[in-house]
Design a protein that fits this description.
Largest sheet: 4 strands, antiparallel
Shape: globular
Strand content: 35-45%
Mean pLDDT: 78
Low-confidence stretches: 1-25
CATH class of the largest domain: Mainly Beta
CATH topology of the largest domain: Immunoglobulin-like
Oligomer: single chain
Structural class: alpha+beta
Helix content: 10-25%
Radius of gyration: 16 Å
Order of helices and strands: HHEEEEEEEEEHE
């Protein structure tokens, strides 16, 4: 497996590659984020940043936090970055419940991510964090993400180039 040098600079990524290299997977997910393209109380648009390992034949699994059974949905779109082995896998989940935490992952991968749908009322104010230009160093990004997560925000808005 050929992995770009920049990706290998992070200990977290190196450890993940060592584990996932032993599995028969199509892509290694190095990160994920959620956006709201439609109604944020009932939809989550999932974006998985990946390193391509083979063919793209899988689905997204998701469930409410605390539930054992996974639901499955076909991916909506894959875009590879021209001239690299990196890409983004998109999948939009719809028909979800407001103010509910969901877990999600690409099939055949153990790494689980989670996000929460927005509440359907504003009885409690939303906690929003604004930031930008994060992608210079994986270790600094991990530290900043841990700090943001400790604040338990409802939404993080990230700008940049």
């Amino acid at each position: 497996m050929k992995v770009p040098t920049r990706i290998l600079n992070s200990k977290r990524i190196k450890d993940s590659i060592r584990v996932l290299d032993k599995l028969d997977v199509d892509r290694i997910t190095v990160g994920a984020y959620v956006s709201y393209n439609q109604e944020p109380t009932t939809t989550l648009a999932l974006h998985f940043h990946t390193i391509k390992m083979g063919t793209d034949n899988y689905e997204v699994e998701y469930r409410k936090e605390g539930i054992k059974t996974w639901s499955k949905k076909s991916i909506d779109h894959i875009t590879d970055f021209l001239g690299t082995d990196k890409g983004i896998v998109w999948c939009e989940l719809t028909g979800l419940e407001p103010d509910t935490t969901y877990e999600f992952r690409l099939t055949d991968q153990g790494r689980v991510f989670k996000s929460k749908t927005m509440p359907d009322n504003l009885d409690t104010p939303l906690k929003i964090i604004f930031g930008g230009d994060l992608y210079h160093d994986y270790d600094n990004m991990d530290m900043m993400n841990a700090m943001i997560a400790s604040k338990d925000p409802d939404l993080v808005v990230v700008g940049g180039d």
